[in-house]
């Protein structure tokens, strides 16, 4: 069937171009929600009253059609409370490639950490923990469904009015066959988040998402952007800065001072545990990184410290060594934690990414 004449394409509704042009007031710049590597997103209102986000891909060529199909196929096949919902698209034979999503009203995690919505103390530690868990849940679900996101970053983690997570932007995502260890593909993604092994060896695995998520965890701890050319040369990449601070026992220099790290022993305990987990995610050797389901399990264990501390009393201020091993859900004996513990002295850690 010709998609041009069908009301559905790859299982989603096909919108008339004119309706979307009308919905966005002819793609008025005042309706712009954001701009990425592949297109601009506009806020719009459909004729049925639904408020939507309309992604307008930059040019209609073979590569863009592939990304267009990719996003539609993934979002129609996979449904999860922390993945953005796709309402439909225009025909791939139409004059422009447009994707229509549910409108998420509260910007991105990046906006709240170090962007236009950021203000000191506005994003509490408990909210940041929830964001990390919901994002990890979405990524673990993708990996269990044989999909690698490939562009995990705080700009692709949307927040609704209740600060619930919606992971977005699947244009780069790849289906991952279960019978292979990696897919060879030219590195794509965002500087500051790209797995160094993927960057150097062109080998994409689910652990590439784990590395990127490690950077997200450090952003949640520090409120700093993943890349900042105004920082010291060796700290332009946040991943390098974090590894250096953690290895030199200077975590307090990395943590956002508004989170209560110095005044609340429980917060200090939890942040230190998340930093340890991030450190494991950022290992240069992908075999030393945990899987996304293991990361999720560890984060749930860290969150449970809050409940445990309430039940048994406050933790000792000095109780911040080996946190991940002592306080979170235990992983399998041959997991990353035991590998990391035995190999940390000889491991080469994450290096600067071009």
From TrEMBL:
Residues 27-300 form the Protein kinase domain. It comes from the Eukaryota. Pfam families: Pkinase. Its main location: membrane. ATP binds at residue 55. The keyword Acetylation does not apply. It catalyses: L-seryl-[protein] + ATP = O-phospho-L-seryl-[protein] + ADP + H(+); L-threonyl-[protein] + ATP = O-phospho-L-threonyl-[protein] + ADP + H(+). Keywords: ATP-binding, Cell membrane, Glycoprotein, Kinase, Membrane, Nucleotide-binding, Phosphoprotein, Receptor, Serine/threonine-protein kinase, Signal, Transferase, Transmembrane, Transmembrane helix. Its EC number is 2.7.11.1. PROSITE patterns: PROTEIN_KINASE_ATP, PROTEIN_KINASE_DOM, PROTEIN_KINASE_ST. GO terms for cellular component: plasma membrane. It is an enzyme of class 2 (transferase). It is a single-pass type I membrane protein. The keyword Transmembrane applies. GO terms for molecular function: ATP binding; protein serine/threonine kinase activity. It is found in: Cell membrane. Belongs to the protein kinase superfamily. This is non-specific serine/threonine protein kinase. It comes from Solanum tuberosum (Potato).
